Amino acid sequence: ATPSPKQRALFAELNSRAASKAIKVPDFAGAAKYAENGITFLHEGCWEAQYSLSLSLYETAVLSHFSSLSGDRDVLTKRINAVFEHAKDFSDLFKTHCVWIKLLSMKDLTKAIAESLHALERLGEPLDLTHIDSHKSRDELIKRRDQFAGDRKKKFLSSNRLSDENKARVMKIYSSLIVYYHQQKSFLGSYIGCQMIKMSMDHGHCEHSVFGAAAFACSLVNILDDIDEGSDWGGTALSLMNMYDKEVLMPSIHGSLYGIVFIWKEPIQATLEPLARGIRLSYATGNVEFAMVNTIYYAARSFNCGKNIRVLTTEVEALARQHRNNFGSDASSDTPVYSPLLQFYLTPLYNVLRVLAGENDDQSPTSEEEETSFPLDRVKLVNNDDILKVAVKTDQLACFHTILSYETAKAFMCRDMEKARKCTDLYFDKFATKDLRLMYTAIYNVFYEGLVSFYFTRLTGEENCRTRAENAYTQMREWSFRSDWNFENKLLLIEAELYYTLNNYDKASICYEASIKSAREHKFIHEEAIANELAGNFFYETGHFLKAESFYAHSIKCFKKW
Fold it and tell me: Of the N and C termini of the chain, which has fewer Cβ atoms inside 10 Å?
């Protein structure tokens, strides 16, 4: 029997309640099912006769389709368009509008930023950034840092909670803008972070203030190179997070702090579990943006700390399969919207891992099994050189920097010194010699810059190589004061190469052995292997053949274990 209008309204309401409860679990696939069922029971003129119920069902459908890996992108687009057409005001449209901007950011970051700024105007809180240059942004950052230096951060934690819903919406837009500007490597993200700190102090803090504090910490590290204050603000963000729904906030907070801030002081291995948890909670809570961020940092840090290659390869394959849906297609052109995570970050690392595991350096699948283990069919470019060219052409500096780090390590470990030099030259030209206003996590670029430059100093006697090598040594020495765990073995190895170059063989010998011991104690097995190999080279070249053989044997043992 066909349900009566009264029954249809009841069924729609019950499905709406079920969808809302499923969202809170969260169970986005279930929420989408309930929301779509509810929509089928709505009357033809539902947006007039059942406005609140219709808005609730459509909003839930939008959020659940977007957040679920199995969400229907075509249906999502239809539901977004319906809300845009029928919402009575911007406050009713706001939640759907935020999802629409997130979708837009996957295809056109510049337009997503423009629409976010327009949203602030519609909220009555316009943000004019046309007069903000890097100097003004830096001045604002210093002003806020000094305002809350030391124990004065407690004022931030003890402030009242934000009660103005419109201000809370503004803070949400600010959070998204910081992410988008960070992707563009723009200083404007740091300026907006300062505005979030100011608004939280003036009007009270909210859940978005937690991300504001974390972003502020990142800016202190990335722009001011103030690792101590950045770390303190990171701790403040974690404390504030405990006042809100931690599981919802962890993806963005862990991705920011453990990916950018805490690595300078805490053992790099200690950042892996928080980042892994950020990945799990990102998918559980539908936070697509920070699923990417946490995955990028987790994969890079796992490689950097020397995680077993086969274990990491399996993890990268699993992460790629988890993220293999390509965000659907552009409705206007039916062109696939590929995942930047899969194309620009996981594929390059997967290629490098295959080479280091002893496979052919052709960066293409060699068997049917490999072809299905990593979704190379879901990327446009397979070869790292091609991906690197696109990154340079499109000015994707973060991607370019990441791939360059992997390729430099691979070339050096495979003793392709010309390729290693080419990679370090690219890094030097693109990053080290330019005022980018933002600092990248360049630990490993600087490490290999030192090793490669000292090698070519001895080989060619070029003064430029010597200068670059000595600069790398100075930089690593500065970092080592922050964390013996992360930097001591690297500094000692560069120092050994320095003394070798200066023909101070006694000190070189001491530093090689100290670097090996430090790498072993701090669990960097791949760097223990490198140090043993370079020590073997040193002793061989200085006529100590039996000693060289011992170091070579231990290097092989470490590489095999890795």
Answer: N
Three-state DSSP class for residue 205: strand
What's the chain's Rg over C-alpha atoms? 26
User: 425: burial class by Cβ within 10 Å (0-12, 13-18, 19+)?
Assistant: middle
Q: What is the DSSP string of 137-171?
A: HHHHHHHHHHHT-GGGGHHHHHSPBP--HHHHHHH
Strand partners, 161: 205
Instruction: Please give the model's pTM, rounded to 2 decimal places.
Output: 0.87
Q: Average pLDDT, stretch 360-383?
A: 61
339 burial via Cβ count (<10 Å: 0-12, 13-18, 19+): buried
Give yes or no for a contact between 81 and 47, defined as CB atoms under 8 angstroms apart.
no
Contact 177, 110 (CB under 8 A): no
The pLDDT tens digits of the residues spanning 218-267 come to 999 988 989 999 999 999 999 999 999 999 999 999 999 999 999 999 99
- Gap between the Cα atoms of 130 and 188, Å rounded: 10
Other beta carbons within 10 angstroms of residue 558's beta carbon come to 23
> Is residue 186 within 8 Å of residue 112, measured between CB atoms?
no
* Residue 320 · residue 350 · CB < 8 Å: yes
| C-alpha to C-alpha distance for 127 and 113, rounded to whole angstroms | 12
Q: Which of 79, 16, 9 lies closest to 45 in space, CA to CA? A: 9
On whether the CB atoms of residues 96 and 64 are closer than 8 A, the answer is no
List the beta bridge partners of residue 205. Answer: 161
